[in-house]
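Protocol step 4 of 6.
Sequence for SCO2322 family protein (Streptomyces goshikiensis) entered exactly as in the expression construct, tag removed. Do not edit the line below.
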Amino acid sequence: MRRLTPLVLAFGILLTLVAAGPALASSYRYWSFWDGSAGQWAYASLGPSMARPADGSAWGFRFAVSKDAGDEAARPRAAADFGAVCGATPAAEGKKRVAVVVDFGLPADAPSGEEPPQDAPRTACAQIAPDATAAEALAAVAKPLRYNSAALLCAVSGYPKQGCGEPLAEGPGTASSPATATASGPADGRDSASPAGSGPSAGLLVGIAAVAALAAAALWQSRRRRTR
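Step 5 output, C-alpha cells:
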C-alpha cells in the first residue's frame, strides 16, 4: 500500500487541478475590433492604431462579454458592407473612405447601471487621410473615445462611462453574449485580444498534473529498485 501512495497522491493532484480549471476561467467585458475588408467580419490581427484600412474597406467595433478572442457571436451585428455605408458619400481627392460599424452590444453585456446608447449598430463613412489608421477612422465618426494606460480601447462615443476590459466571475448571473475587444489605441500598436489577468487554462493545468504524476511514478520506481 505504501508503494502506491505517490501515484494516488499524483492522481489526486490531477483531479484537483482539472476541477479548478473552469473556476479560474473568466469572461471579459470589452470592445473588440473586426476587419470586414473581405465582406465578412474577421477578428482583426492588428490593433486599430496599427491597421491602415484601404479605401473601400469596412471595419467594425463591438462591445460585449466574451471569454475567447474572435468569438463569432461577438461580431458586429451589421453587415460588413462598404457600399451600404459609404455608397452615398462621394470620393474626395486626397481622402479615403472607410465604412465604420460601431455595435454597442446588448443590454445584458452593459456594465451595472448603464445601457447601450442604441439598440442597433451605428454606421458611418469616415473620410480620412490615405495613410490614416483604423483608430483615426473611429475617432472621425464616434468621439469621444477613451483608452487606458495600456492603450486598451475602453469607450466609444462615451460608452461605457467606466471600466475597461474587466474580468467577470463565472456564474448564473454572468452575461452570456460574447465579445471581443481590441486593446489597441493611439499610444501604441498592441492588440490585446484577451485582457490581462486571465487564469491558466484547463489544458495547462492538466499538463502540470501529468508532469506531477510522472515524477511520482519515477520516485516510486526508484524506491522499488532500492528495496529489491
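Step 6, annotate. The helical segments are 5-24, 82-86, 134-141, 202-227.
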